[in-house]
Design brief:
Length: 752
């Protein structure tokens, strides 16, 4: 019980010291301050429009480079002013207003085609439609004044945002690093469970895919923040520290992916003797816990967590290997022992990366500098294309973006018409609910609808209870401000809780204006329920975009990226010094492509059961691609971190065969010309030669043991490990790529 209370208190402390709450406080201050100041100088009539402008232009202020942040807010200001002007201008004539709403909602939603920040600018534009409907301006002069004040409010928010960034310049960096450390720790713990729990592997594998997607998304944002920041402000000590930690996190993530074991082979090798793997499982779990504890240090002050237990478990892995060899005996135990050695090697590298993060967190100034050169860092940044051609490409009913824009516009127009016909009070809340809830994906829209309704009802009940208890307007004012802060802080973390605080804020604001606040509560709930129902039905019936129909391109991209990654790995084996950068860039592209496929599969699982066509087959393709990526990463990681023998001709032959098979699968998905695949016999002979080399090394080792040389020298061990890993991973990759081709043919026959 005491531990639970302590954990809850720690969670609250991390939240209050985190960037989410800080952002909520900043936005609340930016909104409330003009209201207070203009009230003091008897110019309050101008304050609401400025507050609206502040609120409207805050969404695009998300972590990222300073240049993109400023540009995003400025574009948002122009868009919200234009949308508000059009809505207010057309408001007197209902039919023209209806057309304006339809055209604006469609056009503004299409802005999302330009990426995540653009989607938030689009959201601001859609909000401007709602807030334009909420105000009444009788003449052109008052419209111009209102629109101008919204622009002032947007510029005011930009100033406040820049000031807050100046006061705490690394708040977003630290929060993102903290989140990434925590997610990576959870990922390592999931990987530990995969090792010894065959009955729950599918469940844990799906959890691992979700975490991989989340980690990849964090990596992308951190690349922009840290690499752009480094380019802008130079190599400061604090920048270098964060970049070093980020590099270690990427290495840990690759290490984990690179050691996605052939669990079928593990089960065959160890059978009922998996107790020998328990030490490795425990070490992975403790390394994960260490990362989670380190993540907290970015948010709150504290001492580095103890690492002695991890050092002890790491030492115990050697004993576990010896016990296994003693129990099973050589040569029967050789393959299992080498597998355990490779696992031990992987965990030693993990431990070194964790210790590297600990060293950086001690703030020792003689830490190694991040070796990435400015011109190299550009290659790791994903640039967003802002050409008009991007928008033109979406003008097809095959585009999910266009279908969503049509669906959203139709739902907004219908919601507005329904509210007008029923003469509902504050009917624009219906449109607001539709805009906030509706997403391109049906499952997410349904989940947000449910959370929105529950949150609104909870907020309404709490607000009603407080209004019944007290009529004190000061209490209402304080609660309105506090609830606004928590609404902004929690809306991303928990949509349900955020919706509850939004409802609390709205009710208390109305309670300050109108003594009959219960009517507001009633209509708030009714409008929210109507808006949520419209959003879900529209997503299901209007231009539906089921995920299974959009997977061909995503799958083809992953397969092509994996092929390019394998080619880069081949070059790395031939010359590490020359090809390391190209290898890392191709690795990043492959990881991102896999993350996009994982995300697409998660969306598929949220669609209605009737629309999850052949989900088992699609899951098989996802896992095959993921395993191929892991096997490639395993080879690349070994080459990067070990002294290796020269790459053989047989290695090149097999790699060419595998890449050919992968590109053949991609061409099937893209319905392009078939790629020529290497001769099977040639690849078979190459595999035989590689296997013979490993067998010769094994026989030599058997002879050494018979001669009494029981302790293996480092050079022999490294040669055995390299031959074992390269040979087995290539065999595995060949099998996986062949299975992928068969599965792709089956997939195309089902969905063609």
């Amino acid at each position: 019980m005491r531990n639970k209370i302590r954990n809850h208190l720690k969670t609250i402390e991390l939240f209050l010291k985190g960037s989410g709450f800080y952002r909520g406080v900043v936005l609340t201050v930016a909104i409330v301050l003009p209201l207070a100041v203009f009230n003091l100088i008897d110019l309050f009539a101008y304050a609401p429009a400025i507050a609206l402008g502040t609120f409207l232009n805050a969404p695009s202020d998300v972590p990222g480079s300073l240049r993109r942040k400023i540009n995003g807010i400025l574009i948002s200001i122009i868009l919200t002013m234009l949308v508000t002007f059009i809505i207010l201008l057309t408001k007197p004539v209902f039919i023209i207003l209806l057309i304006a709403i339809a055209v604006l909602s469609f056009a503004v939603s299409l802005i999302s085609a330009y990426g995540f920040r653009a989607s938030l600018i689009s959201f601001s534009g859609l909000l401007a439609i709602v807030l334009g409907l909420a105000v009444s301006k009788p003449d052109f002069q008052s419209i111009i004044l209102h629109v101008g004040l919204i622009g002032v409010g947007g510029l005011w928010y930009l100033v406040v945002s820049l000031l807050s960034n100046w006061v705490f310049p690394r708040k977003d960096d630290d929060q993102l690093l903290s989140d990434t450390l925590s997610l990576t720790g959870e990922y390592l713990k999931i990987r530990a469970k995969l090792l010894t729990k065959p009955n729950k592997r599918e469940k844990y594998a799906k959890k691992a895919l979700v975490l991989q997607t989340q980690i990849s998304e964090k990596h992308e944002t951190l690349r922009e923040l840290l690499l752009e920041g480094r380019k802008r402000s130079g190599r400061s000590f604090s920048n270098e520290r964060r970049l070093l930690i980020f590099i270690s996190l990427i290495d840990i993530f690759e290490l984990a992916l690179a050691n996605t074991l052939d669990y079928t082979k593990i089960d065959t090798l160890f059978g009922l003797e998996k107790q020998h793997l328990n030490t490795f499982k425990k070490l992975n779990k403790e390394l994960g816990n260490q990362l989670i504890k380190l993540s907290e240090l970015f948010i709150k002050k504290g001492n580095l967590p103890d690492i002695e237990l991890i050092n002890k478990i790491a030492a115990d892995t050697e004993t576990a290997i010896q016990d296994y060899v003693t129990e099973v005996t050589l040569p029967k135990a050789r393959e299992g022992a080498i597998t355990m050695r490779n696992l031990q090697d992987y965990q030693k590298q993990l431990l070194q990366e964790v210790k590297a993060i600990r060293r950086v967190l001690t703030k020792v100034k003689n830490n190694a500098k991040a070796s990435l050169k400015p011109q190299e860092s550009k290659q790791f940044l994903t640039s967003q294309d802002y050409r008009l051609n991007i928008l033109v490409q979406h003008f097809s009913l095959k585009s999910p973006m266009l279908r969503h824009a049509l669906r959203l516009a139709s739902a907004i127009v219908f919601g507005f018409l329904l509210g007008s016909i029923l003469d509902l009070k504050n009917a624009y809340w219906i449109i607001l609910t539709i805009i906030v809830i509706m997403r391109p994906n049906y499952g997410l829209t349904k989940a947000r609808s449910k959370n929105r309704i529950i949150g609104t009802i909870i907020g309404a009940i709490i607000a009603t209870t407080i209004i019944l208890i007290t009529k004190n307007t000061t209490v209402y004012l304080v609660l309105a401000i506090v609830s606004l802060t928590f609404a902004f802080s929690l809306i991303q973390q928990s949509y349900k809780v955020g919706a509850a605080f939004i409802t609390l804020h709205i009710v208390f604001v109305y309670a300050l204006i109108d003594p009959d606040a219960f009517t507001v509560v009633q209509y708030r709930v009714i409008d929210t329920v109507i808006g949520a129902i419209i959003a879900v039905i529209a997503n299901y019936l209007l231009f539906p975009s089921w995920e299974y129909k959009n997977l061909d391109t995503v799958l083809a991209t992953v397969i092509t990226s994996n092929s390019n990654y394998l080619k880069a790995t081949k070059k790395l084996y031939h010359d590490k010094e020359e090809n390391t950068l190209a290898y890392k860039v191709s690795r990043k592209e492959a990881f991102l492509a896999m993350s996009n496929l994982n995300a697409a599969f998660q969306r598929l699982t949220q669609d209605p059961k009737s629309k999850q066509k052949e989900s088992a087959l699609i899951y098989e393709m996802v896992t095959l691609n993921h395993t191929i990526l892991s096997a490639i990463a395993s080879i690349g990681r070994y080459i990067l971190n070990h002294s290796t023998t020269p790459a053989s001709e047989e290695f090149d032959t097999i790699i060419e065969g595998i890449t050919g098979t992968l590109l053949h699968s991609a061409s099937q998905l893209e319905s392009t010309k078939t790629v020529l695949v290497s001769e099977e016999n040639k690849i078979y002979q190459a595999h035989k030669k590689l296997q013979k080399r490993y067998d010769n090394l094994s026989l030599k080792r058997d002879s050494d043991i018979e001669a009494g040389q029981t302790i293996i020298d480092d050079n022999t061990l490294l040669n055995l490990q390299e031959a074992h890993l390269i040979n087995n991973q290539l065999l595995w990759l060949k099998s996986l790529s062949a299975n992928l081709t068969k599965t792709t043919v089956k997939y195309k026959s089902v969905f063609s």
